[in-house]
Amino acid sequence: QVQLVESGGGLVQAGDSLRLACVASGITFKIYAMGWFHQAPGKEREFVGATGWSAGSSTYYADSVKGRFTVSGDRAKNTVYLQMNNLKPEDTGVYYCAVSAYEDLYDYWGQGTQVTVSS
Fold first, then answer.
1. Beta carbons of 81 and 73 less than 8 angstroms apart
2. What distance in Å separates the CA atoms of residue 2 and residue 20, rounded to the nearest whole number?
3. Is pLDDT at 86 greater than 90 in this prediction?
4. Average pLDDT for residues 67-80, to the nearest whole number?
5. CA dihedral 105, 72, 45, 97 (to 10 degrees)
6. Spatial contact of 53 and 24, defined as CB atoms under 8 Å apart
7. Can you tell me the distance from the alpha carbon of 61 to that of 69, in angstroms, rounded to the nearest whole number?
8. Would you state the pLDDT for residue 104?
9. How far are the Cα atoms of 41, 44, 50, 58, 89 from residue 72, in angstroms, in the given order?
10. pLDDT confidence of 95, banded at 50, 70, 90?
11. What percentage of the chain's residues is helix, strand, coil (to nearest 5)?
């Protein structure tokens, strides 16, 4: 079965950086994309960024993180990363990675990793 395991969360101060990683295992299909989502306290989960898994695929982001966050993937290891720079208190929340097998429909999710940014 598909399993996604995130790591790298923690407590940081505003302006700091963090790098999250997500390793996917049990993959028996062609991955379309791997992405990251953020759920702030008391709010719905929102898209952060994703990268296509085919060679030459693009990477795309939510407007709120453009210029601060970078998504990258290691396709040989089925691992996706989220580099977060210049963190803000509003970036606090649980970050989930997810796998899409078809056109940005994310069917497989990790358990999430907590990021807390203090002001």
1. yes
2. 19
3. yes
4. 96
5. 70
6. no
7. 8
8. 77
9. 26, 24, 8, 10, 23
10. very high
11. 5, 55, 40
- For the segment 96-103, the average pLDDT, to the nearest whole number, is 94
What is the token pair recorded at 26? 């049990």
Query: What single DSSP character describes residue 116?
Result: E
Q: Phi/psi zone of residue 68: left (φ > 0), alpha (ψ -120 to 50 degrees), beta? A: alpha
Give the per-residue pLDDT at 56. 84
Supply 56's token pair.
């030459």
Which amino acid does the sequence have at 117? V
Cβ neighbour number for residue 114 with a 10 Å cutoff: 12
Q: Which pair of structure tokens corresponds to residue 69?
A: 């966050």
Task: Report pLDDT for 3.
Answer: 97
- Contact status, residue 17 vs residue 84, Cβ threshold 8 Å: yes
Per-residue tokens: 13: 């101060």
Asked if pLDDT for residue 21 goes beyond 80, the answer is: yes
